[in-house]
Amino acid sequence: MLAKRYFLLHKPYGYLSQFTSEPGSRHHTLAALFPLPAMYPVGRLDWDSEGLMLLTNDGEMQHRMTDPRFEHPRTYWAQIEGAITPDALDKLRHGLPVQDYLTRPARVRILAAEELATLPERPVPIRYRATIPTAWLELEIREGRNRQVRRMTAAVGLPTLRLVRVALGELRLDGLAPGQWREITAPKMPPRPESGRKGSARPR
């Protein structure tokens, strides 16, 4: 029986969160960073997003960390453009309509400058406009729809300029530079959802 293994990877900007290329794609894949076969990413990050990924051959772990019924938390740092208002934060915290669905309540807070001290520079700088302020938010969500954080911040007038996933549950990005990975012991398995609870999102 194949031993179950778990790896944390810091996915850099510009990489697809998969091991095979798509026809016509000019983006790198995880195969350029991670050499071991038969490992699969738990969830996805868009090519223009960065941060923590879990790679494993444990199918049950992969299922529980991505199926929205388990409400496994994901934490992101989002650099946003615009002036943050109490109304915008309130909408993010209580759920808001995005496309054809209502987001679940999120934990949201404004990040202090000193918390960003260890965040590496992005190889492709974000756009900068002198007349429009920027800030960083930390958002913890428990669902994973396509480009959800970006769509949430845009819906309250705060478009996301840069997005970094810093945690998957208790797993943290700390200590990993872009492109680096390390093996870990088995993470804590997310508990089964309460009886009768239904998910509303496609794993991402």
- What CATH calls the topology of the largest domain is Alpha-Beta Plaits
Number of strands: 11
Q: What is the C-level CATH assignment of the largest domain?
A: Alpha Beta
Q: Provide a count of the helices.
A: 3
Task: Give the N-terminus to C-terminus distance in angstroms.
Answer: 28 Å
Strand proportion, as a percent range, falls in 25-35%
Low-pLDDT residue intervals, each spanning 5 or more residues = 196-204
Number of domains: 2
Q: What's the helix-strand series?
A: EEEHEHEEEEHEEE
Reported CATH architecture of the largest domain: 2-Layer Sandwich
Instruction: Profile the largest sheet.
Output: 9 strands, mixed
Q: Taking Cα atoms only, what radius of gyration do you get, to the nearest Å?
A: 17 Å
Describe this structure in words.
By secondary structure, this protein is of the alpha+beta class. It has 2 domains: about 1-70 and about 170-190, 2-Layer Sandwich (Alpha-Beta Plaits), CATH 3.30.70; about 75-115 and about 125-170, Alpha-L RNA-binding motif (Alpha-Beta Plaits, 2-Layer Sandwich). About 10% of the residues lie in helices and about 25% in strands. The chain is built from 3 helices and 11 strands. It has helices at about 60-65, 85-95, 150-155; strands at about 5-10, 40, 50-55, 75-80, 95-100, 100, 105-110, 135-140, 160-170, 170, 180-185. Strands 1, 2, 3, 4, 7, 8, 9, 10 and 11 form a 9-stranded mixed sheet that branches. The chain has a two-stranded antiparallel sheet with strand order 5-6. A hairpin with an 8-residue loop joins β2 and β3. The longest helix is centred in the middle third of the chain and has 9 residues, at about 85-95. It is globular and about 55 Å long. The protein starts with 5 loop residues before the first strand and ends in a 20-residue tail after the last strand.
